[in-house]
Here is the input.
Amino acid sequence: MTILRRLSVAASLAVLAIGAHAAPHRPAVSAPMTSTPSPSDGQTPARDADAQRTEADYAQGKVDRLAERYGHLEDVTVTLGITPEGKEAVAYYTEGRIVISDAHTVSIDTILEHEIWHVIDWRDNGRLDWGEDLPPDNSQTYLRQ
Ligand SMILES: [Zn+2]
Here is the structure.
């Protein structure tokens, strides 16, 4: 059952990968996220410019540190900004680019610990085949030797 479900998720993501350069991904981290209000609801206002810069610096620093551990993350960039449908974050995995919503409600750590794996998934073999159950069970095999 679980395997079948994961396969069908992988199949739909693979179609997205062919048809589009960027497939939005909402981090699948916890139930509350699925009811996260979009920025247009006015309940989660965007950070002001200073706060966004501070958060963006923090996020990029975290990705840079992760890239020291996982070679597949080299040159991955992360910014804060507008995401499709008010999603918490989007991984533009073919470009090695992550955008975190400037109105995100989930911590940057939690978001990145999910989104980076879409990039690693893609860079591993040019396909998205891990679905949303991230990190994968074999994540440690992607550590730099
Ligand atoms: Zn995702």
